[in-house]
Amino acid sequence: MAKCDICGKSVQFGNNVSHSNRKTNRIWKPNIKRVKCKVNGAPRRLHVCTNCLKSGKVERA
């Protein structure tokens, strides 16, 4: 599973809780895109979450 190369966001684990309060496992996956970014002036492909893209932490190539 990919994780954000900028902020380190990756999958999180928890429980589905039904109306009768039964618990089953579930996963929250972050919205991660593979984009071309400038790193030290050179373009590279990075895994970046959409929060980092939206906030401007990454300069697109």
Topology summary:
Layout: E1 12-17, E2 23-28, E3 32-39, E4 42-49, H1 50-55
Antiparallel strand pairs: 1-2, 3-4
Structure description:
Helix content is 10%, strand content 46%. The chain is mostly beta strands and 61 residues long. It has one domain: Roll (Ribosomal Protein L24e, Chain: T). The strands form two sheets. It has a two-stranded antiparallel sheet with strand order 1-2. The longest helix has 6 residues, at 50-55. 10% of the residues are buried.
Instruction: Please tally the helical runs, counting DSSP H or I stretches of 4 or more residues.
Output: 1
Gyration radius, to the nearest Å? Answer: 16 Å
Kindly report the CATH topology. Ribosomal Protein L24e, Chain: T
The appropriate CATH architecture is Roll
* H/E element sequence: EEEEH
What kind of sheet is the major sheet?
2 strands, antiparallel
What is the arithmetic mean of pLDDT? 95
Helix fraction bin: under 10%
Task: Please tell me the total number of domains.
Answer: 1
CATH class: Mainly Beta
Distance between the termini: 24 Å
How is the largest sheet built, in terms of strand order? 1-2
Relevant CATH superfamily? Ribosomal protein L28/L24
Keywords: Ribonucleoprotein, Ribosomal protein
Family: Belongs to the bacterial ribosomal protein bL28 family.
GO cellular component, one term: ribosome
Pfam families: Ribosomal_L28 (PF00830)
